[in-house]
Amino acid sequence: VSGALAMMAGWDLTPLRRDLERLQTPLVLVAAAQDRTVSPSVAAQSLAKVKNGKLVRMKHLGHLAHEEAPAAAAEIIRNALAETAPATGGEAG
What we know:
Shape: globular
Low-confidence stretches: none
Helix content: 40-55%
Order of helices and strands: HHEHEHH
Structural class: alpha+beta
Largest sheet: 2 strands, parallel
Number of helices: 5
Distance between the termini: 40 Å
Number of strands: 2
């Protein structure tokens, strides 16, 4: 745990924030309504900087929403992929 906390304490997110407005690929951000570690407002603020973004909210879930509701998290990922994947005219194999 101490290693993970030290790693996160050393993150410099300033370049990422600055570069968000140049992002060309679609971005889907997921925010959990009850997240007490990273406020859902951070996702909304980040989304305001991108041209092609979408915010998906997971109600009644916290910071580990993907562990609390893995099926719902997987569905969000599947939907995001379906919305952004190029049409292939058939099933991927």
